[in-house]
Design goal:
globular, 2 domains, 6 helices
């Protein structure tokens, strides 16, 4: 009986060793696995990618110029009556919390309402929230391409008050993107700033 227990114990140890090897050397090639709150369907490489937009100064920029440091990207619009200002303010708070801990993360606000969100409008909006927050707009086609790259949703709603008064339905995720790794994780709008900062710090330390 003792021999059977010894064999069983040896088998368990071998199994655990194999699992640890797979995680650290073999199948576990995701260096950010311990930082993720949930699995990403299809893998993180299914989200993010190239885009060309217009910044607050009116200059044309690409994702390489925008994501030159860790970036927290959000798609919204400045005329949003409630959700976008709260989400953007939360992301600004995250950036400040990380700055206090010695990390630098750029909050990025990409409009889904290019008809009204001019570079000047975005500058007023982002400057109020955080000195390093970047606002991006562009043509309808450029916005659509960026949105599709990040798998976001938006749809302009009909207005009864005239063309200048309308709402835009949209998704509300924030996307953590790193210069070398690209998109690594997303955050839901109900996640507190402190929890986001803690998880982002994990990604930055792992990188």
């Amino acid at each position: 009986m003792t021999r059977i227990y010894a064999i069983a114990a040896g088998a368990v140890i071998l199994l655990l060793s194999a699992v640890m090897w797979l995680v650290t050397m073999g199948g576990g090639d995701d260096r950010y696995a311990q930082c993720r709150a949930s699995a990403i369907a299809g893998g993180s490489d299914q989200i993010g990618g190239p885009f060309t937009l217009v910044d607050e100064t009116g200059a044309t920029v690409t994702e390489k110029e925008v994501i030159d440091e860790p970036a927290l990207i959000y798609f919204g619009y400045t005329y949003c009556p409630d959700i976008c200002p709260l989400d953007a303010a939360r992301n600004a708070e995250v950036a400040t919390l990380l700055e206090d801990r010695g990390y630098s993360v750029k909050p990025v606000f990409i409009t889904i309402d290019p008809e009204r969100d001019t570079p000047e409008q975005l500058a007023d909006f982002t400057d109020y929230l955080h000195p390093r927050m970047v606002g991006l707009t562009g043509t309808a086609e450029q916005i659509k391409a960026a949105s599709q790259a990040y798998r976001t949703y938006y749809k302009k709603q009909p207005s009864e008050d005239g063309d200048d008064y309308y709402l835009v339905d949209h998704s509300t995720f924030s996307y953590l993107t790193l210069p070398e790794a690209g998109f690594v994780d997303y955050f839901r709008r109900d996640e507190p700033a402190e929890d986001m900062a803690e998880r982002i710090a994990c990604f930055l330390d792992a990188g």
